[in-house]
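User: Could you check the structure of this?
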Amino acid sequence: MSGGQYQARVFQFTRAGSPVFDPVQFLTLVSSSLSSVPDGATFITRREGGVLQHLLVTDNTPTQEGVAFQLAQAMHAHMTELDETPDLSAAEEIYQLEWTRRSMFGVSNMAGADVTTIAQMLGGLLREGEWVAMSVRTPTKFEAKWNSTWVRSQSGGLTHQSLHAHAKVVSVIVGTGTAAE
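Assistant: Sure, the predicted structure tokens are below.
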């Protein structure tokens, strides 16, 4: 879009009740919503004013309010639309997690982990002004085929969360206080 500004909708999620502890139940609740999240939508967790803030920055379309509402229900959270995009400029250094052909695959991941444990772990790591963002997109046909071939070549690799029909690719970006962190 030359000459124009990108228009986004920003939704904030705050805890409204007891979270869903069963990973399978959580995945079931959130999977239909995630399939409606457009490519480029970004989930951000940041520490501001001493508390964690959980945001979804997405397209400026009417359907995204429903998507945010479904995600909030799955997380047992309240959803509030904010007027402005978050200011992430307090981070002195920004890094993006990358995978190259020389990168090693790990067999350990957070699939099936208790969502609240992951959030608490992340909350304990972030200091004032720091953030973690995850932008989602649909994998390319090449990525999906390559991933499927790799997963099936692993022992017991016939079932894997990345083979789900609505699986997304996630780019992880981190804003931190110093390069040493």
